[in-house]
Specification:
Blueprint lengths: L2 E3 L12 E5 L4 E4 L1 H12 L5 E3 L5 H8 L2 E2 L8 H12 L2 H11 L3 E5 L10 H15 L33 H4 L2 H7 L15 E2 L4 E2 L10 E6 L5 E6 L7
Parallel strand pairs: 4-5, 4-6
Antiparallel strand pairs: 1-2, 2-3, 6-10, 7-8, 9-10
Helix pairs in contact: 1-2, 3-4, 3-5
């Protein structure tokens, strides 16, 4: 995984197949997107609904052949803001939103293991910005009044950090937990502590957590795509 990304990936246009070069110059292919979409198509009910950030909507619809909550047709800002708000909320608060939307699976894209920078953690503040435009504490959804404020997700000096100095709102958000679940025990680079994120160049700050409302369903070979099943209400711990 000691590689330098050489593909000019646009943040809003993720490619299906990713190419990288190792330190020795050899080319490496990461096929995690197709791997994940194939798993979804073959292992989830045909009527399943998948929530992800909008960038991957068309791919999930066409390749995985599953219904999505939002896609690349971004005209419906309220839907996108709702997804951003859910990712920015705690797992408990997000669960009510997921159930309200009829979501069966949640998909996140994570580059901390491989060094893939166009992942959802690096898009997180965009989710917060869009979510804050609709959810300022004056609107009730799923029996709570979400108030998304960008300053809650950065440090007092305005830094976006995933380590121990990161904000509590970020370190306990749904997106953070779904990206970093089980990552605390993973060694990504020689000489670095377990849980070292190669994109953010930092040891993650929240390591000791379990999931209470979702279950890991599938993680691709290089951890780039992670899929979680939303628990039924009677199966919550």
């Amino acid at each position: 995984f000691h590689c330098t990304w050489v593909t000019a990936e646009a943040y809003s246009s993720p490619s299906i197949i990713l190419a990288a070069k190792q330190n020795d110059g050899n080319r490496v292919i990461f096929d995690d997107f197709r791997e994940a979409y194939s798993w979804i198509r073959q292992n989830t009910p045909p009527d399943s609904k998948v929530l992800s950030w909008w960038d991957y909507g068309y791919q999930i619809s066409t390749i995985a052949n599953r219904t999505v909550i939002v896609d690349n047709n971004t005209w419906n800002n309220t839907h996108i803001a709702t997804v951003g708000m859910a990712f920015a909320s705690s797992e408990r608060d997000a669960y009510g939103v997921l159930k309200m939307l009829g979501v069966d699976y949640v998909l996140v894209v994570f580059g901390g293991l491989t060094g893939y920078a166009s992942d959802d953690i690096n898009k997180f503040l965009w989710m917060v910005k869009i979510g804050s435009g609709e959810f300022d504490g004056n609107r009730t959804i799923a029996d709570f009044n979400p108030r998304i404020v960008e300053s809650d997700y950065v440090t007092s000096s305005g830094d976006f950090r995933v380590d121990k100095k990161g904000s509590n709102s970020l370190l306990n958000s749904l997106l953070y937990k779904l990206c970093y679940y089980r990552f605390a025990g993973v060694v990504t680079e020689y000489g670095k502590p377990a849980g070292y994120d190669r994109v953010r160049a930092a040891e993650i700050g929240n390591k000791d957590f379990e999931l209470d409302y979702l279950d890991e369903a599938y993680t691709t070979e290089h951890w780039i795509v992670r899929v979680y099943k939303v628990r039924d209400e009677h199966n919550r711990s």
